[in-house]
Amino acid sequence: MTDHLLSLMTFFPILGMVALLFLPKENGNLIKGFTLVVTIIVFFISLPLAFNDVFKTSAGMHYTEFVPWISVGEFFTMNYSVGVDGISLWLILLTTFIMPIAILSTWHAVDKNVKGFMALALLLETAMLGAFISLDLFLFYIFWELMLIPMYFMIGIWGGKNRIYAAVKFFIFTAVGSLLMLVAVIYVYYYAIQSGIDMSGFSITQFYQVAIPAEIQTWLFLAFAFSFAIKVPMFPVHTWLPDAHTEAPTAGSVILAAILLKMGTYGFLRFAMPLFPDATHQFIPFLALLSVIGIIYGALVAMMQDDIKKLVAYSSVSHLGFVMLGVFALNLQGLSGGMIQMINHGITTGALFLIVGFLYERRHTREIAQFGGLAKRMPIFATIFLIMTFSSIGLPGTNGFVGEFLILMGAFESQLRWFAVFATTGVILAAVYMLWMYQRVMFGELKNPANEKLKDLSGREIALMAPLLLFVFWIGLYPNPFFEKMTPALEQLLQQVNGTEIVAMVEPAQIQLPELK
Amino acid sequence: MENLVQEAIANVNFAAIMPSLVLTLFGMAILLVSVFLPRGSTTPVAWLSVVALVVTGFVSLGAWNNPEVGFYGHVALDNFATFFNIIFLVSAALTILISDDYLRREGYPVGEYYPLILFATAGAMWMASGTDLLTIFLGLEVLSVSLYVLAGFFRGQLRSNEAGLKYFLLGCFATGFLLYGIALLYGVTGTTNIADIGMYFAQNPAYISNIMTLGGVGLLSIGFLFKIGVVPFHMWTPDVYQGAPTPITAFMSAGPKAAAFAGFLRVLLLALPALQPEWSTMFWILAVLTMIVGNVIAISQTDIKRMLAFSSIAHVGYALVGLVAANEIGISGILFYLLAYTFMNIGAFAVLVLAGKKGEDNLTLDGMAGFGYKRPFLAVAMSIFLVSLMGIPPTAGFAGKFYIFAGAVEAGYIWLVVIGVLNSAVSLYYYLRVMVYMYFRDPAEDFGWVKMPAAAVVSIVLSVVGVLYLGVLPGAVMEIAKLAIF
After folding, report:
1. Can you tell me the ipTM of this complex?
2. How many CB atoms lie within 10 A of CB B41?
3. pTM metric for this prediction
4. Which residues of B86-119 are buried (b: 16+ CB within 10 A; e: fewer)?
5. Which of A17, A75, A76 to mutate: most B Cβ within 10 Å?
6. Which of A394, B130, B179, B479 has the most neighbouring CB atoms within 10 Å?
């Protein structure tokens, strides 16, 4: 059973999708219920990962599976090679955890072509899990691209007014990046072969062994980084995100924010940085600068939004900037902060999108000016919303604080000290735009008569938010269970990225003869 | 005199032309059968043609790893020819399956249609197995003449007439170029046999840069490039593709194109390997031009047939990338890609054939609005074909592009590959737009006229299976393609 745990987890949604196709089209609730059950089962399949203490001590890959897949003579082999370590562990669990919540959130929101929506959601879950467990670059690429199609349809069919523009933009932005990555993948493969390494497939653990000269690394890193930066999204290639988020249906936004964006950061951690350590060091100041610009720019733009969903979308740009800053600090605090902040962002922003969805379902508008004084009508909603707002700001006691504190501390202790100083303003700005928005929506007098009869959260909606609330406080008050399982893997990553730099510096090609004077 | 006859008879080797022979005989028999059938009943003829193609398929497969040479070395049925024969047969079969109801709808249920496709296929086979420039020329003519007729088959329709005439006039020009090229090469080397030409240049390298050689290669290339539809010899494609009967368009974009590639590959790789630096540079430029022109013009098309025509130009550009690389993986990548393209492009056209009204004026983007909700099966199939044309995994189009680009990377043409993938990115836009209209727009039509004839459904299902099989498990076919090259 545990031998094939990852495959079972990854492909169970697809099996569910096939079964789903045989359900009657008219019975929307049956289809939703069935999908919910499938995603919950997937969550329980993935749960043993969370309780396995092996991640506390070992940095390597676990639950590995290896099946030869495509083999073309001496040209190519591609393998179905999967595994999980302390880095992918939490993203996998985040995926399986968020999916049922996202599905449950569609109960009233999606009523058109329910079957299609659910089929796409399940396909998407397989693609996302597949990308997180892939240990073969080719396999990763397949899953990476496979994610595009369901999300494209989700935005395009079930989205808002401007959905077509948003869907096409999302698709093209992401695909352009990944096509350049594909060229780099092929190039790395041939480079490895030509430098005499007996590659079995596009295995990343083998690619890690390849010593690539710094000037080639530069180009390859750029190709990878471009692709991942679009997905994160980093400034200035973030422009697809506000459109996609605003137009996507609530469940789509939740999945997009909570999981798809993490693909970009995960890509940096798993591929771009350890594969090209020299280039990583070379580009850190530049990328850190983009991250800080993203933090401040995202926050400033968020402040000016009059649409709540857009505000949350831009806050994502800001939060992901924090994650990237922590990652580029290249020390344990920064990296762990970045990792935990990825999870935090998934939980908090996912929750905020759900909250926006609740409002939209009731009032069919997301304009801040339409609301005001809701706190009196909807006390439970107000409480949950407030907690999530605090979590997004990073108030101590909530998960956001842990992540942002570690990131800023890590960045401050690294070469990015001044970047950290500027990034800190992002925390203040976050407080400004979140609290201001909260105040305008929830407090004050209830002036708009349309808001008079708003109902407080239903049992289903509270059930949706409860698990998210649990994690807000769990990570906020006692994050150790999370950290202790990611630390070995992160230490190994640091060694790969920082260690090889020292080795590379004494490589013959790098030594320049002193000029004779 | 008697000796000559005996020698000639000794050189006759029917095994070397068996597939095309079988197909031609079937074609002639079917032509006769159709005469005795009542006017308008073409269904038996269509099914007979499919039988003919299947039988020929088995005959062709028998030649795998069992090469036959005959007719003074003019014809060789080697693995290369067999691989291409299968491509031609598949494209002909998929085409015929979508034709029957279409011809009746458009008001031309004429039996000759099917034998013409069979003859075109036989001509394509001679091109693939021709080891002499003249055999290739002969094959090209048989193929082209059949296609001229087929393109103008709807004799009462202006567009179809235009397509036929345009194709005929420009095609004649191109064949003229080809013949000139052959003549010049003959003038230099004293032979039209491909292997002998290669040997001659190997032994007399001084003649490689001879003006007559270069001129001959240039003219020869123009002839082939015209048939393949490479920029700047692509001008005929959009009009002909748009005007010709849709199944014929589907066929032309797959089978005959592959045939021209087959002949061209054999000439380049066996007769002119000495000039590889020259033609690699030439194709580098042409590949870039072809990809860019095809993709950029396709963006502004609103007629889907025309859009696919321009996109087929772009796809030729991708295939040329493999030719630039000219290494094992690049060339076998081309073979793989042509097969993949056969499935995805004919599949896409098959959906259009079913979605069209009489006269096909509704095959525009607007005409497809909401298609996804009214005809879910066809729309899902169309989406799979479009995704494959974009080159997104896990489809055949991705695997094919991957191999071709990998070949070019291996050969060191990184920038060409970068241009190639950026072009793929451009193509996303216009392929996606079809999906946008099918799924994201509200239905304007009821699509009540769309019938689902069994034969066409078979064709579409086969294409979907082909696209997904080649996409998910490309290894086996790629292995075969590798054995098929020289």
Report:
1. 0.84
2. 12
3. 0.89
4. bbbbbbbbbbbbbbbbbbebbebbbbbbbbbbbb
5. A75
6. A394
